[in-house]
Amino acid sequence: MKLFTDEIVKRLEKLLEMDASDIESLLQTPTDTTMGDYSLPCFKLAKTLRKAPPLIAQELADNIEKGPPFEKIEAVKGYLNFFVARGALAETVLTQVLEQGARYGESDAGKGKAVVMDYSSPNIAKPLGIHHIRGTMIGNALYRIFKVLGYTPVGLNYLGDWGTQFGQLMVSYKRRESELSRGDITVKELLDLYVEFHNESDEERLDDEARAWFKKLEDGDPEAVSLWEKFREESLKEFQRVYDRLGVTFDSYVGESGFIEQSQDVIRRMKEAGVAVESEGAMVVDLEQYDMPPCLLQKKDGTTLYATRDIAAAEYRRETYKFDQLLYVVGSQQKLHFRQVFKVLELIGHTWAQRCHHVDFGMLSFTGGTFSTRRGKILFLEDVLDRAVELAREIIDEKNPTLENKDEVAEMVGVGAVIFGDIKHRRNKDIVFDWDTALNFDGETGPYLQYSCVRLGGILRKYGKKLPTTADLSLLTADEERTLITLLGDFPRQIRRAAEQYEPSIVASYLLDLAGTFNTFYQKHRVISDDADLTAARLLLVSALRTVIRKGLDLLGIKCPERM
Predict the structure, then answer these.
(1) Alpha-carbon distance 172 to 336, whole Å?
(2) What is the DSSP letter of 443?
(3) Residue 295 pLDDT exceeds 80
(4) Do 264 and 144 reside in the same domain of the chain?
(5) Distances in Å between the alpha carbon of 299 and those of 67, 280, 282, 305, 477?
């Protein structure tokens, strides 16, 4: 609860020479109630204060201001633990959750600030693969998280719709044009053409043809442009169907092709400013003094590259959206690329380059190796979703054969399983995709959280009467109840942490802790009992838990069914 963490930070600021935000980032919510409701680990302070963590904790405990809303503040083995007065904790937290409902955890901290996010960004003429799930869902979750914090998020799908690969595709298409001219070509057929190009034994000669076709495209050749438009249109139809299933939306689909003319202007301005120089016929920016290789802007044949278009796109985004932050949710393999782009933006005088951030994420591979679109080694995202939904339907048929809307529920559960199976991991972690792990409906999974939420709703329905609006919340004295209430109070802070670190997995981990604690509580205590006063208090707790779990799942882009 921000009320309590703000008070902790205010008191610690008087003792520590640290920014409030840095102090808040250190605070934890112990799962063991004997360790308090909030805790400050002092281990990270040891280096700067040059003291042992237990000594730091004890000195802070001796000198910190005591009193309400804390009934006790104590040092234990390097931790400074804060115990909120029981009555104040339950009354403050549950009242806020119940009064604010689905708005709980929201704020206006980002009011008037735009956060522009570049995410998903697939290449056209290829179906979305399972490897696209990472950037797509991390970006989607960050969009939702920043939005509830009052920011104006802008979601950009910066399509890979330009480059020599389209020359390669045109070569393969022209070679089989007679059999492909029967009507609309599917995206999977386009992928087959791309793979076919790279499987040719005479690939070197074909590369020359591909470069020539791409040069025709850049020069506006009508036939090349017509083919490119056809590939792009079919791709967008395919993408939209999958995005709809994932609940992902964008505010713009302007791809690389939208910055061709601007790229030429970028090169001209950088040449005039002396930032770009000619090297062996190509245009580059020398970044050796910044411990980076040269940034290539233009090839010998005059065609532009990713970096040139990214620089032009960044300038357009700044001018159009006046962003406070520009986030690129792109894989870790592109770290050098974005370091170069941001440095070039800085060198040409854009001070706002400091507000551009590469939100990188680890590689996704699958059992048997990594993905390779060139060799056709790709697992289609839609096939994964279909398989997950199929499995969910089988489980529903077995466990709840009379359930209404089985197909709708199976879609929510199956898709949720795939999304959560990825987004629960820290984004910089490499992941090996495995069917048994991704579609396991037990343990730390999306279906587990969905079922916890459904169980909470079932308790409220079982009560069979209108829920009480007030109750004696001081009756919630069990250890599990205190932990649940503390966790509920920490939800707004966890959302802020997820935004600050660009890390949706923080929300995912929080939800797992909350659901796990609830299930422990439910095994030990009855919610509905002969004690009317205790029943009323616990029903309000259950209602608050359901609100927060549903809200948290929504932030991650996961829907929750009423029954399953």
Answers:
(1) 32
(2) S
(3) yes
(4) yes
(5) 69, 9, 5, 8, 70
CB of 185 closer than 8 Å to CB of 237: no
Domain of residue 60, CATH code: 3.30.1360.70
What pLDDT, in 10s, does the model give residues 217-275? 988 999 999 999 999 999 999 999 999 999 999 999 999 999 988 999 999 999 999 99
What is the per-residue pLDDT across 262-286, written as a single tens digit (0 to 9) for each? 999 999 999 999 999 999 889 999 9
Which residue type sits at 365?
A: S
Q: Does residue 92 lie in a domain region?
A: no
**Rounded mean pLDDT, 320-326:** 98
User: How many domains would you assign to the chain?
Assistant: 3
Return d(Cα 35, Cα 29) in angstroms, integer.
9
Is 89 part of any domain?
Answer: no
- Give the domain extent around 562: 97-157+250-564
Final residue of a domain: which of 63, 84, 105? 84
Q: How far apart are CA 338 and CA 353, in angstroms?
A: 11
* Residues 301 and 220 occupy one common structural domain: no
The pLDDT score that the predictor gives to residue 505 is 98
Whether 90 is covered by a domain: the verdict is: no
Give backbone dihedrals phi and psi of 357, rounded to 5 degrees, phi first.
-135, 135
Query: Sign (positive/negative) of CA torsion 191, 195, 200, 205?
Result: positive
Any idea what the CATH number is for the domain that residue 113 is in? 3.40.50.620
Q: Please tell me the distance from the alpha carbon of residue 534 to that of residue 517, in angstroms, as a whole number.
A: 19
Residue 49 lies in a domain: yes
213 and 136 fall within a common domain: no
375 pLDDT more than 70: no
pLDDT at 374: 47
Amino acid at 337: H
Note whether 137 and 180 are same-domain residues: no
Beta-strand relationship, 114-118 and 152-156: parallel
**How many angstroms separate the CA atoms of 191 and 377, rounded?**
11
Boundary of a domain, candidates 222, 246, 270: 246
Tokens of 356: 């551009």
What digits encode the pLDDT tens for the residues 119-131? 999 999 889 988 8
**pLDDT, mean of residues 456-460:** 97
Nearest by Cα to 487 from 12, 32, 20: 32
Here the tokens at position 487 are 């966790």
Report pLDDT digits (tens) over 116-174.
Answer: 999 999 999 889 988 899 999 999 999 999 999 999 999 999 999 988 889 999 998 88
Q: What are phi and psi of 92, to 5 degrees?
A: -70, -50
406 token code pair: 């089985």
Same domain for 136 and 276: yes
